[in-house]
Each structure stands twice: as C-alpha cells, then as structure tokens.
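Re: that backbone. Tokens:
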C-alpha cells in the first residue's frame, strides 16, 4: 500500500475583500464581501514507501497547504487523504508518532533553552524508550555533528546551526514520513549541502518517505527523481524530473571555448546563439543532434573545450509556470 494517497483533495478559504479608502472601509463594515480562494483544487497523487518527491510551485501555489492537510493541521474542504493508512485530520496518536513536519521558517525548539532540553522534551512527548533515544541521538549526532551546539541557547545559534538542531529534534522518534517545507531556506551553500546529505542518508538508512518543497533547485535535483509541480492549487506535472526537462526543453546547451573569437553569424550556422563572450560561447541545439553538432564544431572551428549540458532546471520550472499563467489568462 502506498504511504500517501491523495484523491480529489480540495482546500478552499473565504477571504474578506475590501475596497481601498474610507468609503471602502464603511461599506465593508456594514456589508462584508468575501471571495473564495482555492488553495488546493482537485489534487491527486500517490507516493510509495521510501520515495523522495520534490513538490514544486511558486509562492501561494498550494504546497504548504497540502503538507498541512497531509499532516493533519488542516481539515480538507473535500476529497480524501490517507497517510500510512490513517486519515490525517483525525490526528490519532499512532499516526502522529510516524511522521514529522519541518518548516524552514518556523521553529519548534525552545528559544531560551539549550537544544538538548528540547530533545528531552520531545523524548517525553513521543515516549521514546531510553535505549532507542540514546541510539538515535548518537546516529543524528554523528550525521549532523551536533556536539558543539547542544549546550548553547537556541537563540545564540546561527541559522544553519539551528536548522541542524531542528532536524534532529524532528527525527528523534524515527518517523516513517518526512514533510520538509523549505528546510534549507536562508542557509549558505555549505550548510545546504550538509542538510541535503543528511536527508539523503536518513532516507537510505531508514527507508523514510520524503516530500520536499524548496525554491533551491539544487535541493530537488540532488535528492529527488520524481517531482510534482503545482500552481494555483492544481497539479501541472507529476513524473520524472528528467522527463519534464525533455518535454519542456527539446534542446541542449553547447558551451564552447574557442582558440580565437568567432563571429556570431558563423556560430549561428550550428545552433541558436545564446551568448558570446570573447572566446566563450553558448549555443542552443536540438536535443537529438547535440553530439553530432559538437563533432561538426570540433571539425570546422578550432576549440579548446566543448561541453554538452542540460538547460538549468530553474529555467524549465519557470517556463512551466509561464505556460500555466498563459493558459489561465486565455481561459484554457
């Protein structure tokens, strides 16, 4: 049985709508107007045990709302969500003990106490046996190098140090499902890599199912093979990341270094010229002919280096959202 089943899931809100100015305020006082906001609108997907799935979308797309429904924090307007065989909003203890929700812009650690105190609080909340707690803590300490941080007040930790402690606190009970909402938000590159490596190691060690939302595409490409793309509450794509790249971008990029500058007109005979800077140039070429065109360039132009690359994932996702916006505006 899949760890997560979502069928025709909807979550709607009524939002107060007020015109600007004093007149608008008076009208709103006597006759309040509301409009429906479809945060999640007829969403369907399943996630198997041990899968790591990227959940992508712009701000306000419905990502966090979906995770909150799956974790039982929100009651769906309609539809069905099943997580580990449980209905999330019923919030049964057996369900709450098997998942964790980590949000990069929220903290669960007690601000004025050392992180270790929060770990002990979580041990009591989840009723973790002493032997299991000590074994899990040792594993987390080894993976995240927590020792220097444990006796510091949380408010004195850097953002990266706090995030490591947040993850440790959230995983002390060895959850089967991780809902990670922007876990590397605001972290420097080094700390982002450390967090990604930790999540990957945890997935491999415990076979945990992971849903990851992130605006850093490096998080997604490093950790996941499958992505679910959502915009305005609706799923635009659900499948392999590489298939999305090939579907949206039927081209590859050739990055070349020439021995001497070459006019763009000549380079344009081999593909669409994206950029020329001195002896360096980037060409956009047909995906299926990339190797052939690279060979032709090596034959006819003196090159020091040539590299065939996929277009940046950020560009692919941006194009998906742009097409979605065009479709909405045209009424499709």
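Recovered sequence:
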């Amino acid at each position: 049985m899949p760890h997560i089943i979502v069928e025709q899931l909807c979550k709607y809100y009524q939002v107060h709508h007020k015109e600007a100015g004093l007149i608008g305020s008076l009208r709103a006082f006597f006759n309040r107007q509301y409009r429906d906001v479809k945060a999640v609108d007829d969403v369907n997907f399943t996630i198997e045990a041990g899968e790591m799935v990227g959940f992508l979308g712009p701000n306000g797309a419905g990502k966090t709302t979906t995770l909150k429904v799956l974790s039982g924090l929100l009651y769906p307007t309609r539809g069905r969500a099943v997580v580990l065989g449980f209905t999330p909003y019923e919030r049964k203890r057996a369900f709450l003990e098997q998942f964790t929700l980590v949000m990069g812009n929220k903290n669960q650690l007690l601000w004025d106490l050392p992180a270790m105190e929060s770990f002990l609080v979580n041990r009591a909340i989840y009723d973790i046996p002493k032997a299991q707690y000590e074994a899990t803590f040792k594993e987390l300490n080894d993976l995240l190098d927590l020792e220097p941080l444990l006796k510091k007040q949380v408010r004195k930790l850097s953002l990266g140090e706090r995030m490591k402690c947040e993850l440790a606190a959230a995983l002390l009970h060895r959850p089967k499902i991780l809902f990670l909402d922007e876990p590397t938000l605001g972290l420097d590159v080094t700390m982002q890599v450390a967090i990604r490596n930790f999540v990957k190691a945890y997935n491999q060690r415990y076979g945990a199912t992971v849903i990851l939302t992130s605006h850093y595409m490096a998080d997604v490409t490093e950790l996941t093979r499958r992505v679910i793309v959502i915009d305005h509450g609706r799923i635009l794509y659900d499948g392999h990341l590489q298939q999305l790249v090939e579907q949206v971008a039927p081209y590859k990029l050739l990055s070349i270094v020439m021995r001497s500058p070459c006019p763009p007109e000549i380079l344009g005979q081999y593909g669409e010229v994206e950029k020329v800077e001195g002896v360096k140039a980037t060409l956009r070429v047909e995906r299926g002919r990339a190797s052939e065109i690279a060979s032709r360039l090596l034959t006819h132009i003196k090159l020091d280096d040539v590299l065939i690359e996929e277009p940046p994932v950020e560009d692919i996702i941006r194009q998906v959202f742009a097409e979605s916006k065009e479709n909405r505006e045209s009424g499709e």
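The longest strand covers residues 33-47. DSSP finds twelve helices and 13 strands in the chain.
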